[in-house]
Write a structure and sequence with these properties.
Domain DUF1835: 74-197
Protein name: DUF1835 domain-containing protein
Oligomer: single chain
Organism: Paenibacillus peoriae
Radius of gyration: 27 Å
Number of helices: 14
Number of strands: 9
Pfam families: DUF1835 (PF08874), DUF3658 (PF12395)
Strand order of the largest sheet: 2-1-3-4
Order of helices and strands: HHHEHEHHHEHEHHHEEHEHHEE
Domain DUF3658: 243-346
Structural class: alpha/beta
Strand content: 5-15%
């Protein structure tokens, strides 16, 4: 809107454009025209484009700083699916905007842990997993911010004024991860809270997961509504790890990082190292049982792994189980038909 003497009143014009929700289109149009004229009239166009770039950068920095100030709590988990449930639970509890959710994309119950806090140890672990686990390389590089080396950097940069809560369950994956994280945070003087959902989260009898387990064994099977209820009920009662326990966890990590095992279980409240082939006979027994029960020659690999994941409390790794099935094929224990490498596209049977 222009005044009668043709002098623009920018404040009124701006308000009018904002009310009409046309500002985005107007700015986009102006920038396109300026960019189109930048070759012919650089002395006129370039300062405008530079000013725009500077304003965008300033605005982005102000937004990030505002978010950093607003986000007061860090919630740390050991799987991306658990992180997704955590975000949903925090949203339901009204705490999402003031919370940061971090997660590892790893399974600490399998693969080498030797000197994992060092680059040499990380490369050793990466090589072992890449050689054995199907599609490991793709998921490893597709989720770089959740990789061990990047998470180590992220954890080191958490300011002391932000609280940290580590969520885990009674299983080898998360218990090993808990010890690793507490070792990485060993220089942090401010309190760290740990929530073991197996010990603290009792499901409601009408919950559809109650019959599977009244107490969830891992964060991976805790849904967002459970997290929301727990936070609303227990926000002021979360367990702070005392320094004595923190030092004990740190020592236990150092012991773990000197082991050469590649498979670990959680038994009687402790981490147990077992041979790599520890589950092989159980897999063979399951395959034989399914063959007899269903009168099948070959059993779909996806069905075998699905039953193992639901019937066994640990480990909860489909990739490790498939690796062991392929090992049994390669060493003459199983016959196969189909396309190994695509879990539901091939089947196996006990070698006759």
């Amino acid at each position: 809107m222009l005044l009668s003497h043709n002098e623009p009143n920018f404040d009124e014009d701006y308000d009018e454009v904002i009310k009409g929700r046309r500002l985005r289109g107007f700015v986009h149009s102006v920038l396109e025209q300026v960019a189109a004229l930048s070759d012919k009239n650089p002395e006129w166009a370039n300062p405008i484009l530079e000013q725009w770039a500077n304003d965008v950068e300033t605005s982005r920095n102000e937004r990030l700083e505002h978010e950093r100030t607003r986000e007061r709590h860090v919630h740390l988990l050991f799987s991306q699916s658990a992180a997704g449930s955590m975000k949903g639970g925090l949203s339901g509890a009204g705490l999402r905007l003031e919370s940061i959710v971090l997660s590892f994309n790893d399974q600490f119950s399998i693969g080498p842990l030797w000197r994992l806090e060092t680059l040499e140890g990380q490369e050793n672990r990466h090589g072992w997993l890449a050689e054995r686990m199907m599609h490991y390389e793709f998921f490893h590089y597709a989720n770089w911010e959740h990789r061990i080396e990047q998470m180590m950097v992220t954890l080191s940069e958490i300011p002391d004024e932000k609280s940290i809560t580590i969520w885990c369950g009674s299983n080898a994956d998360e218990q090993v991860g808990l010890r690793f994280v507490l070792y990485l945070l060993r220089k942090r003087a401010t309190p760290i809270r740990v929530i073991n959902v197996t010990d603290t989260l009792e499901r409601e009898p009408d919950d559809h997961l109650y019959n599977e387990s009244p107490f969830p064994l891992s964060m991976g099977v805790v849904h967002s509504k459970e997290i929301e209820r727990f936070i609303k009920r227990s926000e002021d009662e979360l367990y702070v790890v005392c320094m004595e326990d923190r030092r004990r966890y740190e020592r236990e990590w150092l012991e773990l990082s000197e082991q050469d095992s590649v498979l670990r279980l959680w038994d009687n409240d402790r981490i147990v190292h077992v041979p790599e082939d520890y589950l092989d006979q159980a897999l063979l027994d399951m395959i034989s049982k399914i063959q007899l029960a269903d009168n099948l020659g070959f059993v779909n690999t996806g069905k075998i792994i699905g039953q193992a994941l639901t019937q066994w409390s640990q480990p909860r790794s489909d990739t490790f189980l498939e690796y062991r099935i392929q090992y049994l094929i390669a060493h003459g224990k199983l016959d196969f038909q189909g396309m190994p490498g695509m879990m539901n596209r091939y089947a196996v049977r006990i070698k006759e």
